[in-house]
Amino acid sequence: MDTPRNSIDKADEAQLLATIDRWVEREVAPRVKEFDHADRWPAEIVEQMKELGLFGATVSPEYGGLGLPARTYAEIVMKVSSVWMAITGIFNSHLMLALAVEKFGTEPQRRHWLPRLASGEVRGGLALTEPDAGTDLQAIRLTARREGDHYVLNGTKCFITNAPIAGLFTVMARTDPEDLSARGVTAFLVERGMPGLSTGPAYKKMGQAGSPVSEVHMDNCIVPVENVIGGREGQGFKTAMKVLNKQRIHLAALCIGPAIRMLQDALTFVATRKQFGQTLSSFQLVQALIADSQTEIHAARALVLDTARKRDEGIDVTMEASICKYFASEMCGRVADRSVQMLGGYGYIADHGMERFYRDVRLFRLYEGTSQIQQIVIARHLVREATR
Q: Which active-site residues does the annotation give?
């Protein structure tokens, strides 16, 4: 069960959300096309994110963060992602590492790393996926062999968000070569600059330009014993699952912001675009696209905020988090498709903006647990309850 987190004062929450909203519209929105076309790390925007406290949004105030409850953070994610999903991924993935340290790290690890992560001085990356271990995290093959006061890590991680710019990684490695189950996996904090660690060039991706993703290579990488998260071997799989369970609520929120903006942009278009002497919005088949999109967005938003509220109250929402991620990511894909359909040819060309959204949101159904994995998680929970 999650520890309850007190909500911030309503007035403070409203002020924070209004500040984020102004920043996104005034500072980020005018530059999205520039960064997207160049696929450039948005250094100037990242500095502003640090000033706003986004890199420590969910980190406890004890360690220099804002300590926001899940519901407030979900609202922020919706606002930021409604303009540019890539920068949301930059701080959201960073906070996954911070969560692993805060929830499972030793107190010295928390004291050393969390203030630096919360300030944005150090940016983090969660290194889970391998070429042969994506959805099936128990298939992790990157090895960690203990030699005295350190471990030697060997292997490759792939599709790691923030890898080219991260200063710290949470790396899942197999410390027991004889135990190929989840019990043989351990979580490590691996710093950039440690001997044997390197990162590959950023991938050229379908979407999410500006958010760097690459491989992480470990070639006899030397990691001190004190960098084992929590100080114990065999806890890596548990750490990864707990982090992913919480983050699924935030990832669902990440899907809702773009859906809201895509529908708004499509509505603006069909309300003025005329065919056969009528605006497109007057045709019933177009109205059906609008109604279906709005209904699904409304349902997804209500679902995410309710689940976040329950989590803030300390309720176990493992299954509900998977429901959120599954429904919201699939919903966003459907809204993207309908929005392009409403814009017709204009939705297909790059200069309009809808084309970028369409590319960017395709990732949502894949990362941090595919839609198919969420279906399995949901079904297993229900079957387990039914057979008790």
A: 368
